[in-house]
Amino acid sequence: MPHPIADIVSMVQRQVAEMGQIGATNIVKVPDLDAVMAVAPSALVATEVAATPLVFLESGWVIAMYGSERSGLQAKKASTELRLTINGVRELVTYGTRGPAFAAFDALFGANMNWFSLMRRVAKDEVWHARYRNFDTVATAIPSLMFAFLSDVQAEKMARRERV
């Protein structure tokens, strides 16, 4: 029998996909970089920067991930990449058995949607680390990363069909 939270998270993800609205408690944003990412020195060597770690203040579920590059240009999404380490031990993107990997924003978030459906349990005080790479040899990059978060408290209210 599926866990009751799975039905709630599935419903919320459908809301995002169908209506563009979220049934999340809030949007949790990875802290902005202290400065823009520098231009890549060559097409094969990226500039790499770590964001300030994101600490979740309560337990719940990450139900979607939003990503963009502030210029809004599709070419920038193709040349800006993300590596996400969850609680210091789990990588969102991997090379399989060969370890962690980066993924381009356009591959994760698409050309127009800017979001990626994700269901991940989060504990209070859990820490996520985002690293970005810029492969653009002409322009700087300003990546932005956010997560739709459904708290355990709100999920319980939704399960009881209480007003949230």
Tell me the layout of helices and strands.
Layout: H1 4-19, E1 26-29, E2 47-50, E3 54-55, E4 60-69, H2 74-79, E5 80-86, E6 90-91, E7 103-104, H3 105-109, E8 115-122, E9 127-134, E10 143-151, H4 152-159
Antiparallel strand pairs: 1-10, 2-9, 3-9, 4-8, 4-10, 5-6, 5-7, 5-9
Helix pairs in contact: 1-4
Order of helices and strands: HEEEEHEEEHEEEH
Low-confidence stretches: none
For the residues shown, what is the average pLDDT? 85
N-to-C terminal Cα separation, in Å?
Answer: 26 Å
Helix fraction by DSSP (H/I, runs of at least 4): 10-25%
What is the general shape?
elongated
Beta-strand residue percentage: 25-35%
Give the C-alpha Rg: 17 Å
Number of helices: 4
Oligomer state of the chains in this structure = single chain
The total of beta strands comes to 10
The class by helix and strand makeup works out as alpha+beta
**Main beta-sheet strand count, sense and barrel state:** 6 strands, antiparallel
Protein described:
- With 164 residues, the protein is of the alpha+beta class.
- Helix content is 21%, strand content 34%.
- The chain has helices at 4-19, 74-79, 105-109, 152-159, and strands at residues 26-29, 47-50, 54-55, 60-69, 80-86, 90-91, 103-104, 115-122, 127-134, 143-151.
- The strands form two sheets. Strands 2, 3, 5, 6, 7 and 9 form a six-stranded antiparallel beta sheet that branches. A four-stranded antiparallel beta sheet has the order 1-10-4-8.
- Helix 1 crosses helix 4 (152-159).
- The longest helix has 16 residues, at 4-19.
- The protein is elongated, with a radius of gyration of 17 Å.
